[in-house]
Amino acid sequence: MKIVLASNNRGKLAELQSMFAPLGVELICQGDLFEGEAPEPFGTFVENALSKARFAAEKTGLPAIADDAGLCVDAFGGLPGVDTAYYCTQFGMEKSDANNVTALLNNLEGQANRRAAMVSTLVGVRSPKDPEPLIAVGRVRVEIATERRGSNGFGFDPVLVIPELGKTFAEMDPAFKNDHSHRGRSTRAMMDLLRHSWLAA
After folding, report:
1. Which residue range is the domain that position 129 belongs to?
2. Rounded CA gap, 188 and 179, in Å?
3. In the chain, N or C terminus with fewer CB closer than 10 Å?
4. pLDDT score for 40
5. pLDDT at 9
6. What is the Cα Rg of the chain in Å?
7. What pLDDT shows up at residue 201?
8. Which residues pair with 136 in a beta bridge?
């Protein structure tokens, strides 16, 4: 089964494809099929993921899965949330993973409460107007390190520590990360939904 991934993030594609492979599902990056991105005007992960999935399904005629993920920092009242990818731009910095991490470390300097959560919400639709979208949420508690550690992964991975493991996501190999990450949790939940809803004989 071919499903378009409503994202142009190659790191996200690689992570999801490796986990979906046992289902016989082939994920295709939307950027390989069309140009442009869906509007994401909403304040919640699920609404933005649904917008992206419907947009990709409409553009391609294929079923679509979208991920909207973000960092919810306790000391910031749950922000940056849905604006995680653009976090650094509000401080006059150019959008990049490295700048996002720098901005986060700067804004948490001297802050004792470094607790946060990484949230991944996956939404799947069979068609643009699918009335029964599949919704899977993965959430993992983390603490923000005071400096970058590790060289794997992407995004905020170098500063996201799982307290019980004492490691950042960037210090984990990809398979181990998938076992413990927010996206790993949402993907396993989505796989169960796909098996029972879209792939059932």
Report:
1. 2-197
2. 9
3. C
4. 85
5. 81
6. 17
7. 55
8. 122
CATH for 28: 3.90.950.10
Is 77 annotated in a binding site? The answer is no
Instruction: Pull the structure tokens for residue 77.
Output: 């009242």
pTM: 0.87
Q: Is 148 annotated as a binding residue?
A: no
Question: What ranges make up the beta strands (E) of the chain?
Answer: 2-5, 26-29, 64-73, 115-125, 134-144, 160-162, 167-168
Flag whether 183 is marked binding.
yes
Question: Residues 6 or more apart from 37 whose CB is under 8 A from it?
Answer: 8, 52, 55
pLDDT at 188: 92
Q: d(Cα 29, Cα 137) in Å, to the nearest integer?
A: 21
Catalytic residue among 32, 67, 68, 74: 68
Name the domain count of the chain.
Answer: 1
Known catalytic residue at 83: no
